[in-house]
C-alpha cells in the first residue's frame, strides 16, 4: 500500500497506518511477533502471566498522566529529557549502592543540562524493568558444538551458558526486582532532596524499559495503562508497522518511544506516528529516539524531520548516540568511543536547529559505577584497559565519569 504523492516542497512517500481494529491489551496476539521468546512450556508461561495479572501496579495511572503532561512541555521545547541506564539491567545489581549511584548520576546530569539549557530537565531511567533484550542471533554455538539460546535478559534466562533455557518463573522474579528497585529509587530520592543535589523542585525519576516481552507487558496492563513503567519504548528490531509490538503500543496512554535506526525511511517513520498517535494534537505522546551513527546524521535525519513536520505530528526528538556507534575490539568485545557519541549528539542537535525543530532529550547506556566498557581519552584508552572492569551483561555502558563528561561536552557545545 505505497503511494507516491506530490507535496509542495518535496516528494513524500506515504505509507498507510496499520489497520485500526479494536485494540485490547491482547490484540497484539494476532500479529506476527518479532523477537518472540521460544518457551518450551507454554502452559507454565500462561500460569505465570495469570499470577502477574493479580499483582499490584508498579506505576499508577496518575503518574503516567503526570509524565504525559511534562512530556507535552518537552514537545513544545520548554523542557528536556535525560534518559539513561543499563543496556540490560541485572537481577544481581538490585542493591542499594548500585541503584543509588544510578539515580545520583541522572540527578547530576540533569543539573548540568538545566544550567546549560535553562529548562526543566525530566529524568527517565532505563531502570526497574529493563530485563528483556532483542538479539540479532537467537542462538549461540558453544566451542563444544552445542547450540544454546542467546542471552535474552534476566526476565528470560541467565547469562550463564549453562542456564540459557527460557524460564517463565523469571518473569515473576523480574516483577519483584523491579518493585524493590522502585522502592530504593524512592528512598534515594528522599535522601538526595536533603543533600547538595537538590531534586526537591523536580518531579521524581520516571522508569522506562523496552516493551519487548509482550506476554509480560500485557499481563501488567490495566485498561490503557502499562503499569510496569511510566515510559516504554519500541526497539529498532520490533517496530514493524503490522507487527505485534506496534499493535500493543497503539492503545496505551503511556508515553511511547520508538527507536529509529539508519534504515528507517521518512515514510515509515510517519506511518508509525500515524498508527501510534492517530490524534495529531497528542504533543509529546511519541518520542522518536534516533540512533543513526556519527557521520550519518546529516544524510538521514533531515529528510525524516522534514517528513514529520509536513505530517503535522509533533513528537519529541531524543538522540541515542549509543546504538549506531557500537564497535568490536579485535578480542570480540563490544565497546563505544565517547567522542563518537558526542559527535552524533552534536550533529543531531545541529540538524534539528537547521530545520526549526529541536532536540528534546538524550538517551544513554550508562551506569553509576566505575566500569571500563567504553573508550574515552583519559580513563580507558587502550584495549587492555577494557579488561579491568567490564561487567555489562549486554552492550557497553558509560561509566559515571564518562556519562558526566559526555553531558558536559554536549552542554558546552549548546552554550557556544
Ligand atoms: C537498546 O536500547 O538496548 C537497544 C537494543 O536499542 P535498539 O533497539 O535501538 O537497537
Ligand atoms: Mn543496548
Task: Describe the protein.
It is a single chain. This protein has 416 residues and is an alpha/beta fold. It contains eleven helices and 16 strands. It has helices at residues 42-54, 61-76, 96-117, 169-193, 214-219, 244-250, 266-276, 297-311, 338-354, 383-386, 400-415, and strands at residues 2-6, 11-15, 80-85, 121-126, 139-141, 147-149, 206-210, 221-222, 225-226, 231-234, 256-260, 286-290, 316-319, 326-328, 334-336, 361-365. The strands form five sheets. Strands 3-4-7-10-11-12-13-16 form an eight-stranded parallel barrel, surrounded by five helices. Helix 6 (244-250) links the parallel strand 10 (231-234) and strand 11. The protein is globular, with a radius of gyration of 20 Å. The N and C termini lie far apart (46 Å). The relative contact order is 0.16. The model is unreliable at 1-10 (pLDDT under 50). The structure holds phosphoenolpyruvate and manganese (II) ion. Phosphoenolpyruvate binds next to loops.
Strand content: 15-25%
Radius of gyration based on Cα positions: 20 Å
Q: Would you count the extended β strands for me?
A: 16
Q: Poorly predicted ranges (pLDDT <50, ≥5 residues)?
A: 1-10
* Biggest sheet record: 8 strands, parallel, barrel
Counting H and I runs of at least 4 residues, what is the number of helices?
11
- Biggest β-sheet: strands ordered side by side in the sheet: 3-4-7-10-11-12-13-16
Q: Which descriptor suits the 3D outline?
A: globular
Structural class based on helices, strands and sheet pairing: alpha/beta
Straight-line N-to-C gap: 46 Å
Bound molecules: phosphoenolpyruvate, manganese (II) ion
- On the 0 to 100 scale, the average pLDDT is 94
Helix content: 25-40%
Listing every helix as H and every strand as E from the N terminus to the C terminus, the arrangement reads EEHHEHEEEHEHEEEHEHEHEEEHEHH
Amino acid at each position: 500500500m505505497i503511494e507516491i504523492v506530490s507535496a509542495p516542497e518535496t516528494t513524500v512517500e506515504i505509507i498507510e497506518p496499520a489497520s485500526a481494529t479494536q485494540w485490547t491489551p491482547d490484540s497484539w496476539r494476532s500479529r506476527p511477533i518479532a523477537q518472540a521468546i521460544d518457551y518450551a512450556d507454554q502452559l507454565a508461561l500462561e500460569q505465570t502471566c495469570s499470577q502477574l495479572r493479580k499483582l499490584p501496579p508498579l506505576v499508577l495511572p496518575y503518574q503516567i498522566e503526570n509524565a504525559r503532561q511534562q512530556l507535552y512541555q518537552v514537545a513544545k521545547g520548554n523542557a528536556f529529557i535525560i534518559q539513561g541506564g543499563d543496556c540490560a539491567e541485572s537481577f544481581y545489581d538490585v542493591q542499594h549502592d548500585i541503584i543509588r549511584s544510578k539515580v545520583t548520576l541522572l540527578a547530576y546530569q540533569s543539573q548540568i543540562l538545566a544550567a546549560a539549557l535553562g529548562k526543566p530537565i525530566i529524568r527517565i531511567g532505563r531502570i526497574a524493568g529493563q530485563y528483556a533484550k532483542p538479539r540479532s542471533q537467537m542462538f549461540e554455538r558453544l566451542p563444544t558444538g552445542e547450540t544454546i539460546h542467546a542471552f535474552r535478559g534476566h526476565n528470560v534466562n541467565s547469562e550463564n551458558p549453562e542456564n540459557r533455557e527460557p524460564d517463565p518463573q523469571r518473569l515473576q522474579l523480574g516483577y519483584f526486582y523491579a518493585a524493590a528497585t522502585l522502592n530504593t529509587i524512592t528512598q534515594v530520592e528522599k535522601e538526595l532532596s536533603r543533600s547538595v543535589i537538590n531534586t526537591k523542585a523536580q518531579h521524581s525519576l520516571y522508569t522506562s524499559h523496552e516493551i519487548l516481552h509482550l506476554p509480560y507487558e500485557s499481563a501488567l496492563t490495566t485498561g490503557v495503562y502499562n503499569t510496569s513503567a511510566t515510559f516504554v519504548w519500541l526497539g529498532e528490531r520490533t517496530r514493524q508497522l503490522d507487527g505485534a509490538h506496534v499493535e500493543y503500543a497503539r492503545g496505551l496512554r503511556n508515553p511511547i518511544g520508538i527507536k529509529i535506526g539508519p534504515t528507517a525511511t521518512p515514510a515509515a517513520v510517519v506511518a508509525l506516528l500515524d498508527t501510534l498517535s492517530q490524534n495529531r494534537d497528542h504533543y509529546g505522546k511519541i518520542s522518536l529516539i534516533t540512533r543513526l551513527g556519527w557521520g550519518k546524521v546529516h544524510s538521514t535525519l533531515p529528510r525524516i524531520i522534514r517528513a514529520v513536520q509536513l505530517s503535522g505530528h509533533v513528537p519529541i526528538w531524543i538522540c541515542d548516540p549509543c546504538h549506531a556507534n557500537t564497535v568490536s575490539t579485535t578480542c570480540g568485545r563490544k565497546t563505544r568511543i565517547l567522542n563518537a557519541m558526542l559527535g552524533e549528539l552534536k550533529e543531531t542537535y545541529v540538524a534539528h536547529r537547521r530545520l526549526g525543530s529541536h532536540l528534546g532529550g538524550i538517551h544513554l547506556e550508562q551506569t553509576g559505577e566505575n566500569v571500563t566498557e567504553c573508550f574515552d581519552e583519559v580513563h580507558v584508552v587502550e584495549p587492555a584497559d577494557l579488561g579491568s572492569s567490564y561487567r555489562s551483561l549486554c552492550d557497553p555502558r558509560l561509566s559515571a565519569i564518562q556519562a558526566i563528561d559526555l553531558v558536559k561536552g554536549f552542554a558546552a557545545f549548546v552554550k557556544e
